[in-house]
Design brief:
Low-confidence stretches: 1-11
Number of domains: 2
Order of helices and strands: EEEHEEEEHEHEHEEHEHEHHEHE
Largest sheet: 7 strands, mixed
CATH topology of the largest domain: Quinone Oxidoreductase, Chain A, domain 1
Number of helices: 9
Radius of gyration: 20 Å
CATH class of the largest domain: Alpha Beta
Helix content: 25-40%
Oligomer: single chain
Shape: globular
Mean pLDDT: 93
Strand content: 25-35%
Number of strands: 15
């Protein structure tokens, strides 16, 4: 990465970005703010993208608040996701004018990310924006929606079909959970949504949830095996709730686990696996291979009802991110927050 200047010039290659810097103080503090940068400040890469939208994910909230020391290098432009138009390219895969999406690959942690009006990235991080999805819709999906689609594909790969029984989705009012509920319902599955926010019940029913469970009843310490209830699950929480879901999964069921909002531990036993043949399928979206990533985006363009996507989406300017970061960590964000760096 090139050294950043404090340039405030108004040349045509200048743009705004949210920058996190280490403080000069000895207390290990940080400074966070929107700065005016130029193309000379951008990191190495073979494609430069004029960013139209980014999004807010749980990991972005950690970066914005300094939680978990998720940022590996400073200065950092956070933002896991971005969508925009190629404005310069040395890649054989993309030409100027192409509309592209980037999610994951360490953006906002090790590499500069989407909270900027412009970014230079590696072409092998990019996928073409699918036909049928606008830039805004692509970021309403973002990393959260991509993860949800990968979870659904994991259930399908494990042979779970709509007629096999209900699917439980934990953390259902969050970004991954909301998209998962909408996808599964649209594909014909019966969905039970778990949330700790009763005020979101109508929202989840509108997304397609047939039944609702409280966070508290699914957070009770499970027995090694409980009544067979779920044909499959999408779990965004981890810890005791994931253990509870595993204990209640039917013979041959699949649990797609993708989150740790409730903790990184897993207080379970081998019983669901060796007596019921339950499959625990880990799902990650950061370094997902390009072919799988492209297939998942194609599925999102056809399998996710865009009218429902609109109901779970809020668009905010980049200037609001310092307030939104703590909110997403506290579980106070519903659905998806799209970030407009040009507002």
């Amino acid at each position: 990465m090139t050294g950043m200047s404090a340039s405030t010039t108004s040349t045509s290659d200048s743009f705004d970005a949210l920058v996190i810097r280490e403080s000069d103080a000895d207390d290990g503090g940080r400074t966070v703010g929107i700065e005016r940068l130029t193309d000379a400040d951008l990191p190495d890469g073979d494609v430069t993208v004029g960013i139209e939208y980014s999004s807010l994910n749980y990991k972005d909230g950690m970066a914005l608040t300094g939680t978990g020391r998720i940022i590996r290098t400073f200065p950092m432009v956070p933002g896991v996701d971005l969508v925009g138009t190629v404005i310069a390219s040395d890649s054989e895969r993309f030409e100027v004018g192409d509309s592209v999406i980037s999610t994951g690959w360490g953006a906002g942690e090790r590499f500069w990310g989407g909270y900027s009006q412009r970014q230079r990235v590696r072409s092998d991080w990019l996928v073409a924006r699918p036909d049928g999805l606008s830039s805004r819709q692509a970021m309403a999906i973002g990393t959260a929606g991509l993860t949800a689609m990968l979870c659904v594909m994991g259930l399908e790969d494990g042979g779970v079909e709509p007629g096999d029984g209900p699917i439980i989705v934990t953390g259902a009012a969050g970004g991954v959970g909301s998209v998962a509920v909408a996808l599964l319902s649209n594909l014909g599955y019966e969905v039970t949504a778990v949330t700790g926010r009763p005020e979101q019940h109508e929202y989840l029913r509108a997304l397609g949830a047939s039944n609702l469970l409280s966070r508290s009843e699914m957070s009770e310490a499970p027995r090694p095996l409980e009544s067979e209830t779920w044909a499959g699950a999408v779990d965004t929480v981890g810890s005791t709730m994931l253990a509870k879901v595993l204990a209640q999964t039917k013979y041959g069921g699949v649990v797609a686990a993708c989150g740790l909002a409730g903790g990184t531990d897993l207080p379970t036993t081998v019983m669901p696996f060796i007596l019921r043949g339950v499959r625990l399928q880990g799902v990650e979206s950061v370094i997902t291979p390009l072919d799988i990533r492209t297939a998942a985006w194609a599925r999102l363009a056809t399998d996710l009802p865009l009218a429902l996507l609109e109901t779970m989406t809020e668009v905010v300017p980049m200037s609001e991110l310092l307030d939104r970061g703590p909110a997403i960590l506290a579980g106070q964000v519903r659905g998806r927050v799209v970030v407009d760096p040009n507002a």
